[in-house]
Amino acid sequence: MSSQFAEPKRRARSTEAMIKAATTASDLKTPLKHAPPEVSVTTDILEVVISDSKDDKVLELLFNRVKDLHVSPSLVLKAIERPRLKLYAISTLLERDPDLIITEEMLITALKTYYSQELIELFVRHKKKLRFTEKIRAAIDQCFSNTSQKKMKELCYELEKKDS
Q: Does residue 81 sit in the same domain as residue 131?
């Protein structure tokens, strides 16, 4: 007697490698949808996605999957170094962790980018502060050395944490 019961269809299951390989939001939707609970979005995955992503919406998808994911300074630094992510991704990271401290390395790296003005404005908008070192002051002076850039230089100094 032949069985009339069909064998159940197996669902494709995503792996961490598949999630890391996604470079756009559309590439990421399916692996996230089919990822089993044991495949969680980690800081490691975020770092790989930030390094390789071509789409700033990728972060939004990852953060929607994991609400309590930690944003580290190194993660923000990677985002600053990836100009294709644009400001949206960096803003998303800063919103994710309002207490995140901007480091000397982050600020100096931001000053060296072609979109330094937008990054400084973003840091100011997110009320970021840090103690200025001579290295930071020198980087600001070098980046905004023209008289016409005086307002931008002043904006940079709004990031300086003053001793209370």
A: no
